[in-house]
Amino acid sequence: MLTLREATLADSPRIGVIGRDSFGPTLSRVLFPANLQNRARTDVATEEAEWRASRNSRRMKDGKKTFVVVDKLEDGSEHIVGFAQWETPESLPANIEHKTANEADIDVLPPSLDQDALRRLVKDLEVVTERALGKEGHSQMWYLMILGVDPDQKRRGIGKMLVKYGLEQAAKENRDAFLVATPEGKYLYSTFGFEQVGDEYLLGDVPHYPMLWKRPREAGEVLG
Ligand SMILES: CC(C)(COP(=O)(O)OP(=O)(O)OC[C@H]1O[C@@H](n2cnc3c(N)ncnc32)[C@H](O)[C@@H]1OP(=O)(O)O)[C@@H](O)C(=O)NCCC(=O)NCCS
Fold this sequence. Notes:
Blueprint: E1 2-6, H1 12-22, H2 27-31, H3 41-61, E2 65-72, E3 78-87, H4 96-101, H5 103-106, H6 115-133, E4 142-149, H7 158-172, E5 177-181, H8 183-191, E6 195-196, E7 201-203, E8 206-213
Parallel strand pairs: 4-5
Antiparallel strand pairs: 1-2, 2-3, 3-4, 5-8, 6-8, 7-8
Helix pairs in contact: 1-3
The structure holds coenzyme A.
């Protein structure tokens, strides 16, 4: 049975693994390129998962809302199958620009990570966001930083549960929501009423789409 709960720091290692596995064909190819990986593939894979786990923990400590969907197994144990992390207006540090611009410098970075690619990615996201939303960016919105589902567990409604829950929280706080979608996520978001704002942009060779969701102006259920 699938249930959604708030993440704890103890969930970070598993979140790191799901992040690595779900972004393998897209972002991971840009951030962990083959030319830096003149090493055992398994070491690189471990490094990526650990880096993602520590980044997740740091963001949670910074107050980013993080939710997981768990599959309750028959023996009572639980298995995390997907996660979402949101930046909310309350979780913005006063000096967010400084922090965001230097996100690549905050974490311990593994040797297999292309640090220039990470910096470019952070910068590109800022530019795309400003182009889509203006100077204020998503500072007054719920911003979906990352959503990942275990590749073996796709199409069970896990992504949908995570997006729906986040949007319900945003609506309760009278906030709109913003994200930059991968091609795989785009359709799911559009079913909730997210609309593309601004041009698509390429990350490596993968197109990404800035998308905005406007909260229901009347009290009502979040669709999707
Ligand atoms: C995008 C992602 C989160 C979707 O998770 P998921 O749990 O498989 O999605 P759901 O099962 O909740 O799908 C809900 C609906 O979205 C649509 N959808 C989901 N994946 C789709 C796909 N690959 N192609 C077309 N439609 C898709 C479908 O309408 C689906 O409903 P249906 O199965 O009843 O037709 C998952 O594929 C993933 O982790 N991808 C890699 C990482 C990524 O791109 N994350 C998004 C970053 S913005």
